[in-house]
Each structure stands twice: as structure tokens, then as C-alpha cells.
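[job 0417] fold request received: Cytochrome bd-I ubiquinol oxidase subunit CydA
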Amino acid sequence: MDLDIVELSRLQFAMTALYHFLFVPLTLGLSILVAIMETVYVMTGRPIWRQMTKFWATLFGINFVLGVATGITMEFQFGMNWSYYSHYVGDIFGAPLAIEGLMAFFMEATFVGLMFFGWDKLSRVGHLVVTWLVAIGSNFSALWILIANGWMQNPVGAEFNPMTMRMEMTSFFEVLFNEVAQAKFVHTVSAGYVTASIFVLGVSAWYMLKGRHLELARRSIAVAAAFGLASSFSVVILGDESGYNASLNQKMKLAAIEAMWETEPAPASFTLFGIPDQAARETHYAVKIPFAMGLLGTRSLTEEIPGIDQLVSQAETRVRSGLLAYDALMQIRAAKGNVTPEQTAAFEEHSKDLGFAFLLKRYVDDPRQATEAQIVQAANDTVPTVWPIFWSFRIMVALGFSFIAVLGYFFVVSNFKGMRYPRWALRLAVIVIPAPWIAAELGWFTAEFGRQPWTVDGVLPTALSVSHLSVADLAITLAGFVLFYTVLFIIEMGLMVKYIRKGPYQDVAETEDWMRRHEARLKTSDDAVTMPAE
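[job 0417] inference complete; emitting C-alpha cells
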């Protein structure tokens, strides 16, 4: 396989996925925030909350449409650039994607129209139900996609069929309740909630700095701070759960994140800072926190976290075991139905390591003809490039804790300081708007780049997954996607900025009239309290 095709296919999918994920977190979070605001409107009947709902829903709608456009393009690539992957694992991977398209996407696409155009057609409660269905549909879309992705990280509920040469599902419920997928789902949607909360917080802070739409801004900050703070704690907790799952199912990824070259005595320390040197197999200038990684990664003081060198040695053993599985597989294929019990037993004994034999396809057409040097090299190929994963993880974590600090501050001021926000805090809220997107992209980079060299961990190497396309085909389509997605991103930014500057333009007269009457009632109430008794 031409490695240029593999790298270009990876680059194209990474580019489209990262572009798509510029829209996804805001869609997930704003859908819930809009539903919360409308719930308050239905409960209180105050027009200001209806105006808030319509304003933030407008920004949600812009983001939703462009997110759908980029998502559809991304899914087409499975058939276009990754045809062998689609053939090999389509029996499992296709099921959650089909459910996502038929159930979740159609649900949110159907009700999003009613949400925008049904204000005067539906009752208050009926419209609220529609808004919540849009929010639930958006999150259901994430659920099924992350179930598919979680299976790629931890392929459970499936086995290889030597007759069809494909992975086939054995238990849908194991795929559905895959512990990696469930932790990834909650972690991802919580990150989306934080993203939307920071976005609402920052835009509202900008309004307050400009002295515009103050009542909407204050209430929006209060909602975003409370919702975002709770979500940011969820991100941290489920991030820890994902790390624990990696210690069970993706040990090499965890070792690469830590740049842990050699196995340390339990409990392992956490490397706060360092410069990984993959050639020398060491981390220079390492600053470590004793015991921290052992506690986070194993939740014990006695279990070891294996280092990269030990895991490479284990991978070499699995490559050799995989060669026995591959040889048995070729005998089964050659027998054409006249398979002996010995051949079946030999294959079943080593079948879990078949994917490791496929790593040798990068060097030789028939893995059984591989040299000792090629076997050693295949084992070393299981180590991803360490320094990008090491640093992307640490920047992501640092940003995550900064969100807790920012949201926590605004939560305290909103609830205990009379919503008197100092200008420095409002400026900080505006500056921090892009940070959740940076953290989300780094999180996805860590998860997906850290899985290399596997498309499906331990089952199918990335180098075998691609379609048989020319380098020219991939270069042309990559350039086309970059151009198309850049145009979409510019459109998105232009529309968002336009409507943010325009502000809440709907229900203005009704809301302002209610606010005047509300302020008059408050003033009358204050006068009654301060009037001396006769």
C-alpha cells in the first residue's frame, strides 16, 4: 500500500472531522440552553425569557445548518476513502450510524422547523416540547456516532468470520453499552455544554461592556454560569473515567499520553511537564507529581501502568501469535469448506491477535514471509508519535480547569454578588470564547491520533483501511474540501457576528413594555417598604 495514499486519506478525514467539530459542540450545548430558557418562559410567562429563547435559538439555527452540511460530507468518506474499512467492519460500524440517521437526525431535523416557525401555531407547552425534542435529537445524534467511535476504540460484541473475511456483530447490546462509548458520550456532550455556556457567557459579557440588552445579558450569564459550571465538573469526572478505561483497553495510548517509556513502580507519577524524545526513549526536564497517575489510571496504589517499552515487547509477542492465526486462516480459506478441527482450533486459539499480523502488510504482501527485523518493526509501529499527544492532552486539561475557574467566578457573582460584574471579568469572558473549541479539538486529536496505527484498535491497521485511489485524486479532493469548508466557516462566522451585533430583535416592544411595568412594580414595592409607619 502506498503510504502517501494512507497519509493523505488520514489528513482529509482529520481535516473534515476537525471542521465538523467546530459546529457540533455549540449545537449540543445551545440546544439544551435554549430549552432551559424556554422552560423558564413557560413557567413564569415573562416575555424577556421568550426573547432570550428566540435570540439564542437564532444562533443555534445558523450553527445547526452548517454542522449538518459538514457532517454529511464526513460520513461519505467512509465509502469514498475508506472502502476496505467499510467492508471489513461495516456490519458493526454501520448499525449505529444508520440508527443515528433514521432516528436522531430525522427527529431533530423534523422538529427544528416547528421550533423556529411554530411560535404562533403551537401552545406554550407544545412549543416547549418541540424545543426539548430538538435538544434530545441533537444529543441522540452524538450518542450513536460516539457508540460507533467507541467501538473503534474498544471493539466488543464482534468477532472475525474466516469465511467472509469480515468482522461480524455477535451482540448489539455489548456494542451499545460499551463502557468506552458511554464514557466518551457523556464526556463529549458535557464538553459541548461547556462550549455553549462559555459562548453565551462571552456574548452576554460583550453586550454588558457595550451597555446593550442588559436584562437579557444578565439573565443569560446567570443561566450559562450555572449550567456550564455543572457541565465542566462532568467533563473532568468523565475525562477521568475515559483515562481509566484507557488503562484497561488502550494501554499504549495511555503510555503515550504520559510519555511513560518504562514501567514505573506502582503507583506511577504524573508528568506535569516534559519534552518527550521518541528517538532516545526518554522525557527530558520531566516535572512529576508522585502517585497521581497511578491513582488516576488504576484507582489503586498497587497496580502498575505498563510503559511503552514493555508494551512494544507485548506487541511483538502478539504479532508472532497473529502470524499463527494468519497461517491457519489461509489454510481454512484454501480448504474451501473442508476445514479440519485442527485448523479451526488453531485459528480460534490465536484469532484475537490476527490484527497484529496485518501490521506486517505494510512491509510484505504475505505476513508469513516477514523477516525478524520486519516483525520487530511492526511491533514498534504500535507506538504513536508521542509528543503531539503528550502536549495536546496537557493543554486540554489546563483549559478544562480554567473553564471551571471562569464559570465558577460568574456563578458566584450571579448568585451572591447581585450580578455586579467588574469590567475586567467581562473582558475575560469575551477573550475566552474560542478556548472551549481549542480544548475540544485537542481532545479529539488525543483520542484519535493516540489510537494509531489502528483504525479499529487491535483489529484493523489504518494502512489497510483505505481505498485504492491515486495520490492525485486525494490531493484534488483534499484541496476541494479545504476550500469548501473554509467558505462554510467564513459564512458561519459572518452570520454569527451579524446576528450577535443585531441583538435580540424579536418581541422587542412586548419585552420592553413588560420590563417598564416590572421596574415600576419594584419601585412601588421599595417605596412601600421604606415609607415610615403612620
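[job 0417] notes: The beta strands are 158-161, 166-169, 270-277, 282-289, 454-456, 460-461. The first helix runs from residue 3 to 20.
[job 0417] exit 0
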